[in-house]
C-alpha cells in the first residue's frame, strides 16, 4: 500500500535541541496527523491538522498542514529525554476514513 | 477520544496455528481498522471492519488469511491463520473519528 515519504529517517540530538521532521505525499489529504510510538505501545496521537495552512501547537510541539495539502511538518522545541521514540505522520481521507502512514522518524537523544 | 483494549498484548505461536486478537472499544464506533506493523516498519492497513457487513481488505491481504469479525459496534476480532514466521509483527486495531485512537497492539512471534 501507499506510504508517505517522511524525513529524516532518524535523528540523533542532544537534550535541549530543537527537532524538525516533515512528510510529503503525492496525494491530497483532508487531515494530517502526527503520532508518537514508544516501544511496546500503539501510536499515540500528538497533533491533528484539519485545514490547509493550519499551524497548531501542543506544548513544545508545533505542526503545520501544508498549503498544497500534500505535506506537513512537525517541530519539537527544547527536546527532553521522554521525546525519544518513533514519530509517524499520517494522512487521512474523509472519503474512506483510512489513514496512510509515513515511514517514521526515530528520535534518539544523546546524553 | 475512545479507549481501546486489545488482547493478548503478546504471544509466541507455533507455525501452522492460528491466533485471534480481540479489540474492545469503550464507545460505539462505526468503523474499526486493523493494521500490521512489521519489525522496524511503519503501519500498513490490513482491513476496515464495519458492523453488519463484510470487512474490506487492502491489496495484499485476504480474508482466508486474516478473517475479521465485527459482531457489534464496540468489538472486533482479527485472526491470523495458518501462521508462518513471516507473520511475526505487531497487530493493532484502531477507530476513526475525531480521536483516531489505537490499541496498544499485539506483538506476535511465530516460531
Major sheet characteristics of chain B: 7 strands, mixed
How much beta of chain A, percentage-wise?
over 45%
Number of strands of chain A: 11
- What oligomerization state is this entry in? heterodimer
Shape designation of chain B: globular
Low-confidence stretches of chain A: none
Spatial extent as radius of gyration of chain B: 13 Å
Distance between the termini of chain A: 37 Å
Order of helices and strands of chain B: EEEEEEEEEEE
**DSSP summary, beta strand count of chain B:** 11
What is the general shape of chain A? globular
Percentage of residues in strands of chain B? over 45%
The count of helical stretches of chain A stands at 0
**What is the CA-atom radius of gyration of chain A, in angstroms?**
13 Å
Number of helices of chain B: 0
Major pleated sheet of chain A: 6 strands, mixed
Order of H and E elements of chain A: EEEEEEEEEEE
Average of the residue pLDDT scores of chain A: 93
Helix content of chain B: under 10%
**Average of the residue pLDDT scores of chain B:** 94
Describe this structure in words.
- The complex is a heterodimer of chains A (111) and B (111).
- Chain A has 111 residues and is an all-beta fold.
- In chain A, 0% of the residues lie in helices and 53% in strands.
- Chain B has strands at 4-7, 10-13, 19-25, 31-37, 43-50, 56-57, 68-72, 75-80, 89-95, 101-102, 106-110.
- In chain B, strand 5 (43-50) and strand 6 form a beta hairpin.
- At the A-B interface, strand 5, strand 9 and strand 10 of A face strand 5 and strand 10 of B.
Question: How is this fold's topology laid out?
Answer:
The complex is a heterodimer of chains A (111) and B (111).
Chain A: E1 5-7, E2 10-14, E3 19-24, E4 31-37, E5 44-49, E6 55-58, E7 61-65, E8 71-76, E9 85-92, E10 99-101, E11 105-110
Parallel strand pairs in A: 2-11
Antiparallel strand pairs in A: 1-3, 3-8, 4-5, 4-9, 6-7, 7-8, 9-10, 9-11
Chain B: E1 4-7, E2 10-13, E3 19-25, E4 31-37, E5 43-50, E6 56-57, E7 68-72, E8 75-80, E9 89-95, E10 101-102, E11 106-110
Parallel strand pairs in B: 2-11
Antiparallel strand pairs in B: 1-3, 3-8, 4-5, 4-9, 5-6, 7-8, 9-10, 9-11
Amino acid at each position: 500500500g501507499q506510504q508517505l515519504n517522511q524525513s529524516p529517517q532518524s535523528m540523533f540530538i542532544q537534550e535541549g535541541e530543537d527537532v524538525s521532521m516533515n512528510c510529503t505525499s503525492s496525494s491530497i489529504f483532508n487531515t494530517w496527523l502526527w503520532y508518537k510510538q514508544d516501544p511496546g505501545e500503539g501510536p499515540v496521537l500528538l497533533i491533528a491538522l484539519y485545514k490547509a495552512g493550519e499551524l497548531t501547537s501542543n506544548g513544545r510541539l508545533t505542526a503545520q498542514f501544508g498549503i498544497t495539502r500534500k505535506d506537513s511538518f512537525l517541530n519539537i522545541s527544547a527536546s527532553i529525554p521522554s521525546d525519544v521514540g518513533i514519530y509517524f505522520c499520517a494522512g487521512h481521507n474523509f472519503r474512506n476514513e483510512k489513514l496512510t502512514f509515513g515511514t517514521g522518524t526515530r528520535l534518539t537523544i544523546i546524553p | 477520544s475512545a479507549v481501546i483494549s486489545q488482547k493478548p498484548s503478546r504471544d509466541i505461536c507455533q507455525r501452522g496455528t492460528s491466533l485471534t486478537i480481540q479489540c474492545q472499544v469503550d464507545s460505539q464506533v462505526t468503523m474499526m481498522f486493523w493494521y500490521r506493523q512489521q519489525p522496524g516498519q511503519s503501519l500498513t492497513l490490513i482491513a476496515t471492519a464495519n458492523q453488519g457487513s463484510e470487512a474490506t481488505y487492502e491489496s495484499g491481504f485476504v480474508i482466508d488469511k486474516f478473517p475479521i469479525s465485527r459482531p457489534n459496534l464496540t468489538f472486533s476480532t482479527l485472526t491470523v491463520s495458518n501462521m508462518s514466521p513471516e507473520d511475526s509483527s505487531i497487530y493493532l486495531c484502531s477507530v476513526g473519528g475525531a480521536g483516531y485512537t489505537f490499541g496498544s497492539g499485539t506483538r506476535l512471534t511465530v516460531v
